[in-house]
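Each letter names a residue; structure tokens follow underneath. Both lines appear below:
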Amino acid sequence: MHFNGRFVLGLARLAVNQGAEMEHLLALTGKSAAELAERDCRLDAKTYDNFLEAAVAATGDDYFGLHAGENMNLAAAGLIVQIVQSCGTVKEALEYCCEFSNLGCSALPATLIEETDHYRYTFTPDPVWLTAAPLSVRHTLEGYLAFSVREFQSITRSRRSPVAVWLSYPQPENPAELERVLGCPVYFGREQNTLILQKEHVEEGILHSDYELLKVLVEHAYRKLEEFQKQPGFYETVRHSVVSLLKPEFPGLEEVAAHLNMSVRSFQRRLKEEGHSYKEVIDGLRKDFALTYLRKPELSVGEIAYLLDYSEPSTFVRSFKRWTGQTPSGYRGMFHP
């Protein structure tokens, strides 16, 4: 069993956002951040387990793996943009997702199984790994579940959620956080670890035109994440988390606080200490994204409003005039007369 270095580096960065020390976590992997980022980097199971257990302990986050999967929203969306080009139905795309999942972690293989009135998207941990490192298995499994839900929502482009999630382990103290991230009821003590998906949602066709906007969002969001990664401070951590959680809807305050393993009150206090509010964070990101999108002549004002999570184009136009004193069309005319 081996684990992808880039995946581990992503876990380390989330742990740092929650208060862990990067140097300590990297030392446990025996590699530098640059080495982990290499395409062919792999860690053996023992190294991965030690690293993950240390990350959970350093952050104090009982749902660290779940939040890590949630943090990979853009990665899930980017994968779907590639997959759907060769798929006619949601089912075909999900089958490709299983293949990618199995390539990334052979110790947690995924299968899509058809039943009479639903589909099961099931993960089966390697029994030797489960016996040797149950904590590592649980956090990895919950991360994969969160990532897979985001894949499903990206494929359907309608924010569909599973009907339910089954988990083989006993109910934890705070199951509500699992239900928040996975977006459906969660049942414990079952024989399998699986997402239950409504049959009609899995067998529906794919509208390929819907994914061009998703591609634009993913590409720009990744560029912004690279910028935020280089800047210190809690404000930048929050901006990084917001962009990581785009669906393309912007996440709410409570969602980002929970993702960073903080209470809403502590989250707001930390932002205030740096002279900011969450409303200001969202407003600033919308402006930043809008200025970039308007330089793309192929995007209509209505499409940009959608990408910025406005319910109506007119609302976006009013916001843009407040930011710049210009209409979106006026600003665009400076670059595309």
In short: The CA atoms of residues 227 and 240 lie 9 Å apart. The two ends are 57 Å apart (CA to CA). The longest helix spans residues 134-156.
